[in-house]
Amino acid sequence: MARTWTAEQKARQSALIQSWKPWESSTGPKTDEGKVTASQNRQRSLERARQGVIEARETLQSAQARLQKLTRR
């Protein structure tokens, strides 16, 4: 469940973040090569997810086939 912040907690956290300024030290790809590599991260992630779905379907089909064999007896 999401945290519920009071107005005082929000104000305090905002002040702390303003003093830390984490955006000044955030990193990301700086070179063109790094930017190209980073842009491909989503595609690689999607491909891994697709492969996981394919494997799960194959496992399910195999389990269903075994179940049918067992229930036919």
What brief labels describe this structure?
mainly alpha, 73 residues, coiled coil, elongated, 3 helices
Structure description:
- This protein is mainly α and 73 residues long.
- The protein has a domain at 32-73.
- It has three helices and no strands.
- The protein has helices spanning 7-20, 32-39, 41-72.
- The model has no long low-confidence stretch (mean pLDDT 94).
- Keywords: Coiled coil.
- Residues 46-73 form a coiled coil.
- Residues 1-44 are annotated as: Disordered.
Task: Produce the secondary structure layout.
Blueprint: H1 7-20, H2 32-39, H3 41-72
Treating each run of at least 4 consecutive H or I residues as one helix, how many helices?
Answer: 3
Question: Which residues sit in consecutive blocks of at least 5 with pLDDT less than 50?
Answer: none
- Rg, please? 25 Å
Distance between the termini: 48 Å
The class by helix and strand makeup works out as: mainly alpha
Largest sheet: none
Q: What proportion strand?
A: under 5%
Cα shape: elongated
The count of strands amounts to 0
Helix content: over 70%
- Summed over residues and divided by their number, the pLDDT gives a mean of 94
Element pattern in H and E? HHH
